[in-house]
Amino acid sequence: MSSTVDVVELVDQLPGTVRSEHGRYVKLSVAGRTFGYVWEPTVTVGLKQTIAEQLALVAMRPDVFEVQFTAGGFGWVVAHLEHVERDELAELVFEAWRLTAPAALLEQRGEVLPR
Question: What is the 3-state secondary structure (H, E, C) of the chain?
Answer without folding.
Answer: CCCHHHHHHHHCCCCCEEEEEECCEEEEEECCEEEEEEECCCCEEEEEEEHHHHHHHHHHCCCCEEEEEEECCEEEEEEEHHHCCHHHHHHHHHHHHHCCCCHHHHHHHCCCCCC
